[in-house]
Structure formats: structure tokens, C-alpha cells
Amino acid sequence: MLLETFFYPGLELEIRSAEDETGRQVEDIEYFISRKVDLIIVAPNEAEPVTPVVEKAFKKGIPVVVVDRKISSDNMTAFIGADNYQIGKSIGLYVSKVLQQGGNVVELTGLMSSSPAQERHKGFTDVISENPRIRLLCSEDAQFQEKAAYDRMLGILSDYENIDLVFAHNDMMAYGAYQAAKSIGMEKSISFIGIDALTGPRGGVNLVLEGVLNATFVYPTGGDQVIHLAMRILKGKEYRKINVLQTTFVDRSNAELMMAQSEHLKEQEMKIRSVNGKLMELTRSYDVQRIVMIIAIAVVMVVISLLFTIMTVLRQRNALNEEVNDRQNRIEALSSELEAVSQNNSHQTSHLDAESMFDIDEHPLSEKDRDFIIRFKALITANLSNSDMNIDRISEEMGLSRVQFYRILKRLTDLSPNEFIRIYRLKRARYLLLTTDMTISEICYETGFNTPSYFTRCFKEYFKKLPSDYSRMRD
What we know:
- The chain is an alpha/beta fold and 475 residues long.
- The chain folds into four domains: 2-80 and 223-243, Response regulator (Rossmann fold, 3-Layer(aba) Sandwich); 84-222 and 250-266, Rossmann fold (3-Layer(aba) Sandwich); 309-343; 345-474, Arc Repressor Mutant, subunit A (Orthogonal Bundle), CATH 1.10.10.60.
- It is 59% helix and 10% strand.
- It is built from 19 helices and ten strands.
- The protein has a six-stranded mixed beta sheet with strand order 5-4-6-7-8-10, with helices on both faces. It has a four-stranded parallel beta sheet with strand order 1-2-3-9, with helices on both faces.
- α2 runs parallel beside α3 (47-59) and α6 (146-159) packs across α7 (171-183).
- Residues 328-356 have low confidence and may be disordered.
């Protein structure tokens, strides 16, 4: 979506991520309602809990475009996303083709309170229920999570001896199921199918090429089409309320082609970003030149006016002298301030270092709690630039469940994991602003933020200053 905004000058896109927390998503939508924005785009985490706040925005006259997952109401402006019921049916037909002689199937569903999971399950079971040779052993809710799929699959493997195929509602769960089967040496005898067909490490297309998955189905996100639809609504043009994005399957026969196309698209995206950056630089240069020209014209007009009368000259000279004195005073004050900042820089940097966010030496901690904080900070530091840092994975590496991990960190710091990580990143960013020559954009991505605009907003909310204020202190 961000890339598509380049083609609409004047369009301002603010993105807030709920990180799979429904309550936080409701708060984000309330925030946009209070801001009286022109349009809201939302991909509901869960249908029922998010429906009331979407209806609230819609009834207040704010257009709402629902993406990917539906709500439990028609009180929205438009929907755009894949037909999850049709995807389920397509996978059912694909499974019927793979298991022509019949077989036993396991289904790992996504969060069953979400519309995609419900519709994929219904489409899939509607097809295979008509094939008497295919037996659906069980359907387990793995909540779209790899770890949950791994745990569910281990239990299923202990309950059922003969499993021919596993259909998971996304590629992450399919990979988790594969890992569970591999842990007991059964991965070769089972076929695994997922949904998403993303590229990159552990993406569905890569997993097909590696022989982990037998197939994956493309789940189109259509970010560019979402922005295009939003702009038609804002401009008062005709639009369709329901917009369905098409899908297709990926197996060994076309996975390499899909990978090549994806790489090509990434290259084009990088080129567009580069061109946009250069255009922004040219725009800023033009603005500076325009200001200089205006100032020059103003000076010429002042000089001409001064020639008419000596009195005006004297008054203007006195005014200019006062202004010069005032500026000199301000320059001297600023020089003193900068000198003080320079003298205290070593003291400041020691306090600004992000590593000192939670000084264990200043807290009476047990050896177990001390070890917990040290290992958690080490994991954050190792994954700092990864914007997709996964709390489930961190808690797994800490040897704790998600709930245990949350409770311990909350007890020790009074912060949730997401709050702790966000503050840790912000303090690390402030340290880099003061001690390195990195640009604000470079620091943004180095500390794991997705976009400079979101980074700047979070930075200002926490420190009450802009990143540029600190970079000027460094200069």
C-alpha cells in the first residue's frame, strides 16, 4: 500500500499495527474516528469483536474499506479480498486429485472466530464430504500460529496412525505440522498443503521448492488495489462494494516461475522507492531555492524603499541593528548551549544507551529473574533490526509459554513484551542519533521499525521530541 501511495500526490497514509491483538485494533480504529480521518482501511483480526467499532465509524460518515477478513455486518463501505470459501473449495478439489485412491486427511484451521478460517473450512469440507474415499480425521484450531500447529500435530500423530495429507490454513502452520511429523520421522509419508504462497525464508514458495510442502495456494493481499479502491471512494467515483481477488495454486511445476516473478517485482519496487527518494530530494531542493528567491526579492524591495527617504533609511537601519543584535544574542546563547551539550556529551550518552533501559544492578532481583532479563535483552539485541520480531518465537527461545513469559516480564518491568521491545528500540534509536552519522531512515530500519513515519510518530510520543532534534544535537 505504501508503494501505491507514491502515485497519489497529497495522499497521507497512517498505518497502525495491532500485532494480532483484537483489543488494540479496536483502540486504533477509535483513534482514527477521533481524528476524523477521511477514510479507514481495516483488516479485522476477528469478525465479531471488531464489528461494533467498524459500524460506529461507518455511521459517523467515515468510509470504511474492510480488507482480507470480513466483519459480521454489511455496515461498511466496501470489502476487498480473496474468496476464502472458494479457496477452500479449490484446495478440496486439489486434495481429491492428489488422493485419487482415497486417504486420510487432517485439517489445521486458523482462528475459528475469524471469517477466513470459517469460510476456508466450509469450502474444503463441502468438497471432500462428497468423496467417500477421503476421510477427514479431524479439524484442529491452530490459530494461524506455527507453534500451535506444531503442538496440535504432535497430538494428532499420537491419536492417528495413518495420515496421508495435512491441509493447513496458512503456510506457517503447514511448516509447523511438517516439523512435528519430522520430529518422529513421518514427514516423508505425509503430504502438506498450505495457503499464502509468500517468497523469502520459510515462505510457502520456498518451502515447495525445498520439498517441505507439496503445494501452497496464493492468498492475494492486493495492497495496490486497496489504495486504488480507497481513492475512487474519496473522489466520489463509482466502485463495487464487494471486490474479490483471484488465487491460484503453486507446486513444483510453477514454483520457480513464481519465485522469479516475485524477485522481479521486488527489484521494481526498489527502483520505484529509489526514484521517489530522488524526487523528494529534488522537491526539498526546489523549496529551499524558492525560499531563497523570495528572501532575495524581499531584500531588493527593502533596498529600493530605503532610497526614497532618509528617515525610512534610518528607521530601517535601526530596526536591522536591533535584529542583528537580537540574532547575535541568540547565536551566543546557542553557542553556550552547544558547548554545554558537548561538555556533557559523555555523561549523556551513558544514560541514553539503550542497553541501560533496565539496569539489573539497580534492582533487587533473584538470580532467576536476573538471568531472565539478561537473556531477554540479548534476544532483542540480536533481532533488533527484524521488524517481524515474533513474541511467540522469543518466548519459545526463552523456554517459556507466551503466558508465562508475559507474566514474568510484566511483574519485573510493569511492561508488556511489545511495550518493552518498542521502548528498547526507541532508546537504541536515540543513542544512534546522538553517536553515529546514520540518517533517520537508516536508524528507523536498523531498530526494526517498518516506516520512517511510524518511527517518527512513536519517537515523538515517547521522548516529546522529533528524531531530527537529536540529530541536530549531534551535529
